[in-house]
Amino acid sequence: MSAEATNPEAAPTDVTVRRRGRARIDLRRLGRAALLNATAGPAPRDRLPDAISHVAEAHRAHHPEADLTVLGRAYVLAESSHRGQFRKSGEPYITHPLAVTLILAELGAETTTLTASLLHDTVEDTEVTLDQVRREFGDEVAYLVDGVTKVEKIDYGAAAEPETFRKMLVATGSDVRVMSIKLADRLHNMRTLGVMRPEKQARIAKVTRDVLIPLAERLGVQALKTELEDLVFAILHPEECETTRALIADNPGADDALGAVAEQVTAVLREAGIGAEVLVRPRHFVSVHRARLKRGELRGCDFGRLLVLVAEDADCYAVLGELHTCFTPVISEFKDFIAAPKFNLYQSLHTAIAAPDGAVAEVLIRTHRMHKVAEAGVVALGNPHVGQESDTAGSQADDGERVDPTRPGWLSRLLDWQQSAPDPDTFWTSLRADLAEDDEITVFRADGSAPGTISLPAGASCVDAAYAQHGEAAHTCLGARVNGRLAPLSTVLGDGDTVQLLLAQDAVSGPSPEWLDHARTPAARIAITGWLRAHPESAAPPAPTDPRPQVSVPADRRSGAELHADLDGEQPAAVRPAGCCTPVPPDEITGFRVRGGSVTVHRARCSAVDAMRGLGREPVTVRWGDTPQGRVTLVAESFGRPGLLADLTEAIATFGAAVVSANVEPPSEQRVRHTYTLHLPDVTGLAALMRAMRDVPGVYDVSRAHPSRGVS
Q1: Where is this region: Disordered (predicted)?
Q2: Which of the residues 124, 161, 185, 514 is marked catalytic?
Q3: What are the distances in angstroms from CA 606 to CA 30, 533, 558, 590, 712?
């Protein structure tokens, strides 16, 4: 059996996760029902097996007219094929597909999804074949089961996990129900992770954090995302999770505080004649943790939000008007995700109001339909291959085929670039980086021959837009016009910008390694890296045949130190320190020619040096001049305490160093990371400065910054 399929059934993790909706069904009860069904023989044709009565009840709550016969047949096949298989807790294995199916049923999944969910491990872990599933349940169910079936580890070895995710994502491109089943499967496995070895718990939790939770966010399945976040939080950050649990336990009156505001809101809306349901929604663990980091000390109303549900879109704005009239609004908290829905289908009005007693409460305003989509995301859309009403399932294309609202944007972009990443490691790394992006922008193409829009992650540059629009033809891109003005390819684009990419007419030119500094999307980075590997001669000058005269040129003005480079006889060229490792005297250094003839200088042990050599780049001999000034980036690791920032700044000032920039990251496990970029009047004092910073109480390490990317 596969590793995940045999995850043990155990008590949940130590943290009790607060969830809304129906209580979790006791798996022991499901196990007993499964055993009773097995010993009692097949149920009558007109009666469902008792073990799936909870699934049937939840399914009928969303789909009253659903035909449950197929679910009964699927359960019978799943139970008989898994019979004799047990989880490590001793529970019959059938309790796992039953629990996964119940999760999806409660979210409102349609019958085909539930059928495939009951069968999702049969092909992987039993003698049942995909052809058998297809014969008995049809092509759609077979496609979904195949989509969530892992690739054989014996064939792929260490690459089995990334290749399994690649397979699932490609299948999701045609039917998002594949990923719905996978998310529910992972949620149940995370709920039952307790007795596994700590290192395996951590490994599974990290993949869940880096891949599954971002996918749940992008598919809009908030109900699954929030519980997955809490379960991962408990495993990877147990101390902070325990602190959050204690914080919630120490504030038992939080619901009462929100309840009082809810009563006031209800009275206001009733008086205005607006039919609405006002609910108190407690924050989940991770949400409370984030609120504490953002606001510091939390008050009663900070432990939850008010949810106002209405019938029509217009009612949402009517509620907003009443709230802003009768209460004091916190304008900075207002967001309109109805007029401008998020890329994951989410729609709501967000605001915050101050009650007469000074309590500030966040309020979410949405219709009942919006609420269903906000909680269940793509699960609420039903079958993507059957046309449905546009307000719940997208629109119809001119050829009658349904336009899936989740397919444009991030999913199409992911499916495109994964084809260019045949190496599993490249795919796995790029996938995690792509999913780490929290938001999406839309830019408008100004090319007369190809009008339209491009969806990109927030922070994307003209380089990303070029590869998103032109593919490998973007290798010849020379520049861009952004909002009608000429702009370098490094320009970061904003939502709603208009961009026109300028391509060379010849195919001789190609990307510079420096483009990697501006590429945010995996598609652009993979294409650029591939071109540079295929054309090493374009990134470095030919080997010299004549003695090399020494050319001395001043370094980039930001460095303050003079650099010398031994160049082939061309002309003096700019020599600058690399931003990734900020070399200063007396660091051992090496240089590389970059596009345009300039030389970038790295510390000899910078990881970018290995990357450059891997691309076939020949190093240039460089050395320091006599000017002992320079710029350096230092990272101070410390335990958080009051006054720490002031003490570190004072230690830096004592050495006459100028702070060019500083960044203090949010505390993690009571540890704080400070990053300073400094201009030193005399770099020979760098070691003494680092010692002085280490002597500051609470600081346990000070080091030079490491490069964040492989190539500079």
Answers
A1: 384-405, 536-555
A2: 124
A3: 57, 19, 20, 10, 10
How many CB atoms are closer than 10 A to CB 21? 10
| Residue 695: active-site member | no
Residue type, 472: E
Q: Are 221 and 180 in contact (CB under 8 A)?
A: yes
How far is C-alpha 205 from the geometric centre of its chain's CA atoms?
A: 14
> Mean pLDDT over residues 610-617, rounded?
75
Helix 238-249 to helix 222-236 angle (10° resolution) is 110
**Which of the following is catalytic: 106, 110, 125, 217?**
125
Phi/psi for 386 (5° steps) reads: -120, 125
In whole angstroms, give the CA distance from residue 313 to residue 299. 32
Kindly report the number of other CB atoms within 10 A of residue 514's CB atom: 18
Tokens in use for 57?
């009840």
Query: Is 362 a catalytic site residue?
Result: no
| Residue range 572-588: mean pLDDT, rounded | 68
Two tokens at 680? Answer: 């030193």
* pTM strictly above 0.70: no
Calculate the alpha carbon distances from 393 to 350, 400, 619 in Å.
24, 14, 57
| Nearest to 389, CA basis, from 410, 412, 367, 405 | 405
55-94: burial string, b at 16+ Cβ within 10 Å, e else: bbebbeebbeebebebbbbbbbbbbbbbeebbbebebbbb
Q: CB 255: neighbour CB atoms within 10 A? A: 15
What are the pLDDT digits (tens) for 232-267?
Answer: 999 999 999 999 999 998 888 777 889 999 999 999
Question: Could you tell me the domains of the chain?
Answer: 4-236 (1.10.3210.10), 247-377 (3.30.460.10), 410-534 (3.10.20.30), 539-624 (no CATH), 630-704 (3.30.70.260)
